[in-house]
Amino acid sequence: LKTGRPELTPTAIMAGRLLVQRLFGGSSDLMDYDNVPTTVFTPLEYGCVGLSEEEAVARHGQEHVEVYHAHYKPLEFTVAGRDASQCYVKMVCLREPPQLVLGLHFLGPNAGEVTQGFALGIKCGASYAQVMRTVGIHPTCSEEVVKLRISKRSGLDPTVTGC
């Protein structure tokens, strides 16, 4: 049975805890299935939270969506001389200020850690401007998120060339 809800162990655990609290603890809290982060733990990890670019466009219209993206080279790939051509980060936002962040997609090392870190901000309604005012920890993969300045709409090359 397809429910449209993420079929993930941590999601089921939280839903179960909330159910127990409603049944036996007097709570009325329901499971919120929006913006549940997840990661695919393959040799090159992929993590996401929120809407995909396609979902955002379907929900809000192409003219109301701005996508910031970058191809980047993680420090651990530079030191080891590994190919970083597949490392990519994308932030999907509403176009109108304050540009609410609708989704984050991260392909590269430590994607689970990066995605988990930004999931709270997205769940709390972070804007693109707030993310851009966040100081990145250097040199980390998650720093690439707070450096996203190139939008797909601009047509500029999204390849990061240095610090």
From TrEMBL:
Alphabetic keyword roster: Disulfide bond, FAD, Flavoprotein, NADP, Oxidoreductase, Redox-active center
GO cellular component: cytosol; mitochondrion
InterPro entries, per database record: FAD/NAD-bd_sf, FAD/NAD-linked_Rdtase_dimer_sf, GSHR/TRXR-like, Pyr_nucl-diS_OxRdtase_dimer
Residue ranges of every copy of the Pyridine nucleotide-disulphide oxidoreductase dimerisation domain listed in the record: 36-148
Gene Ontology process terms (BP): cell redox homeostasis; cellular response to oxidative stress; glutathione metabolic process
GO function terms (MF aspect): flavin adenine dinucleotide binding; glutathione-disulfide reductase (NADPH) activity
Cofactor section: FAD
Keyword Disulfide bond part of the UniProt annotation: yes
Family affiliation: Belongs to the class-I pyridine nucleotide-disulfide oxidoreductase family.
The protein's name: Thioredoxin reductase 2
